[in-house]
Request: fold
Amino acid sequence: MLDGSVAREDLRAWLDALLEAAQFRDYCPNGLQVEGRERVGRIICGVTASQALIEAAIERGADALLVHHGWFWKAEDGRVTGFRKQRMAKLLAHDINLFAYHLPLDAHATLGNNAQLARQLGWTVTGRFGEQHIGFIGVPPAPTFLGELVRQMEQVLGRAPMTVGDPAHKVARIAWCSGGAQDYFEAALATGADVFVSGEISEQTVHLARETGMAYIAAGHHATERYGVKALGEHLAQEFGIACEFVDIDNPV
Reply:
């Protein structure tokens, strides 16, 4: 580190190692996705590398963006045209680095989205489940009911979750996986949990919840994934003594 900044490559290596990025099979490249200036002293953190977050980074004089949802997704059109050109042109014109960590940030035991969601809601983590052990299992501070759990989540997350299940359904064991993890429903069911919490819900998941008796809470993709990158930025700032600011670009999904 020099004069309140860190070399880009040192930052990349530290993030890759901390999040064990190489261990994950993912839908996008993890790590440094777009190369900018060689030294980083100010970072803007956010959920998604959208145009709005890029503009916020430019306004704040950032050297880097650190996000959960970056670019270059598998099966996505790889041509740099339209909105893709506009996003990339802004980053390149202002020499801003883009760091993105998807599944590694979901899975991290303390700084990850799932760990931080539990911290916000007061749940104790007792195990992991699912492909690459990204899903978490845990317990609330005391056995509760589905309706009460939903009210707590609405208060903490700032939005009303979509819920499938009887509000009087007893909840002593929770399985959760942030974001668009509705496909983890059957794996969550196998854990013996009383409820599965994720960010989104699909049409078929409603039927599965009704037929299996395990309640389902869809609390918002963005809402459940705000806390990991924020915690990572705070940890990074302490480690390197540089400025990291979390910018929440609201998203109703």
Notes: The domain at 6-102 is CATH 3.40.1390.30 (Udp-n-acetylmuramoylalanyl-d-glutamate--2,6- Diaminopimelate Ligase; Chain: A, domain 1).
